Amino acid sequence: MNNEQTFQSLRDHLRQTSLIEATAALAEWDERTGMPRGAADFRAEQVAHLRGLVHSRNTAPCLSEWLDQLVQWDEASDPHSDIGATVRLVRKDFEKQTKLPQRLVEAVASATVRGQGVWDAARKADDYSLFQPALDEMIGLQREVGQAIAEDGQSAYEALLNEYEPGARVAYLVDVFASLRSELVELIGEIQTSPRQVDDRLLKLAYPIDAQRKWSHVLAEAIGFDFQRGRLDETSHPFCTTLGPSDCRILTRYESNWLPTSIFGTLHEAGHGLYEQGLPADWYGLPPGAYASLGIHESQSRLWENLVGRSHAFWQHFAPQIRDTFPGQLADVSVDQLHAMFNRVEPSLIRVEADEATYNLHIIVRFELEQALMSGDLSTDDLPVAWADRYEQVIGIRPPSAADGVLQDVHWSAGLFGYFPTYTLGNLVSAQLFEAADESLGGVDQLTAKGEFEPLLTWLRTNIHAHGRKYSADELVQRATGKPLSARPLIKSLRDRYARVYDLS
Fold first, then answer.
1. Rounded Cα distance, 243 and 21, in Å
2. How far is 477 from 164, CA to CA, in rounded Å?
3. Cys-Cys link to 351, which of 263, 362, 373, 464 (CB 3.0-4.6 A)?
4. Over the stretch 403-459, which tens digit does the pLDDT of each residue have?
5. Quick one: DSSP state of residue 411?
6. What is the residue range of the signal peptide feature (predicted)?
7. What is the pLDDT of residues 88-146, one digit of tens each?
8. What are phi and psi of 410, to 5 degrees?
């Protein structure tokens, strides 16, 4: 075959593999939304089988033969072109996947389905002992994965971290998080001693779930989520998954006595969905049609959730609609009240409901604990107490129960060790991207106040979404903003917002 024919064979192979991946994702989506719990064991077999098929295709000998030929092709010489990035990144993926035995891939897939079901039951029962065996199994499997794919000098944990954030280094994150923690603790201290405090009791009134569902659809559609190519459902722990280039599923959750859960959960997952819907559909299943990293993915969700959704301009636009939607609770609320209530800073137990100032402290706790779990320095026997101790030391509040402590996140049940740091990376990237977009568009807040979200979405699609995985996260940030990643924009954004709410000097 000539090079064009070989590349077409490669492309066809990868697209066909993506069909199996999407089918597995559909089974996993159903498992988290509507599957009867009694079906968990068989669903685990189904997903393990599908993930095993994907692995066998991703390690097929023909891939190596095609890549060996294509690496010499002039069309592949530009590493950031569609063809060049495909050859370069598929080669890298192939080399990593061949280090993993299919037995291990299938075992992880099976344990993930079973583990998430056990976690859900354990959290509802507030019983860590129900979940501990599943956690032990997953830690053992993920440790084996990390050791298998680790490159020179990498720990198993760092290898897992690179699955979500390619090129990330633990030592770098330790330094970044330490500096960020110092800045945040200082800011939180200023807020706590401010004479102006925020009363958010209105948000704790009874809010009908049906009205919240309708409101969530309004918000997601307003910022650009395409309901002809996606849908919004609900689950115990919100997430976003893509089942094809025109089938993006986002999930949120609703609390009858805490309105922010659905509002910001929806905006967060819709931000993920906007990224997925903005990736080049013609390249679905190949690197140019895939997301760059989870840090970049999180930057999209956190940008819409926080930098847009918690802005004064956002509520200037949506105040009339939220008053009409919840007239019995918010009929007389002002824009300033809404903005203040949605930006109240208070140390809390639950990460997904944390304010922006304290959120990254939740991530720091998880980052430290999961490293210790993977290295063996911390046993699952001691994990609940270690979690509570770290929360008390870092955030200043001690969980009264496992449900509000070690069982609050689904991630470890799904084997997502190394995932948590990408949330903070996403926060850093989101602020830097927003700052650049604000300058480019002549003021995002002015557009937001008028309900004009398309210019910002177009800017993100041009500078982030359209490039898929052709550039690394660091390269994308540098190209989009003209600067390397820095914590300065995030700290400035937080200080500017909270100065308005708390009248900081």
1. 8
2. 17
3. 362
4. 999 999 999 999 999 999 999 999 999 999 999 999 999 999 999 999 999 999 999
5. G
6. none
7. 999 999 999 999 999 999 999 999 999 999 999 999 999 999 999 999 999 999 999 99
8. -85, -15
d(Cα 424, Cα 457) in Å, to the nearest integer?
22
Please say whether the beta carbons of 495 and 187 come within 8 A: yes
Q: How far apart are CA 493 and CA 440, in angstroms?
A: 17
- pTM of the shown model: 0.95
Residue 333 has pLDDT above 80, yes or no: yes
User: For residues 370 and 420, is the Cβ–Cβ distance under 8 A?
Assistant: yes
Cβ–Cβ < 8 Å for 317, 450: yes
Helices (H) and strands (E) in the chain, counts: 21, 3
Known binding residue 439? Answer is: no
Q: How far is CA 72 from CA 2, 91, 120, in A?
A: 12, 13, 50
* Domains observed in the chain: 3-149 (no CATH), 170-502 (1.10.1370.30)
Give the span between the Cα atoms of 9 and 66, in whole angstroms: 8
Q: Which residues are catalytic?
A: 269
Q: How many residues does the chain have?
A: 505
- Ligand-binding site membership of 298 (annotated): yes
For β-strands 230-234 and 240-242, DSSP reports them as unpaired
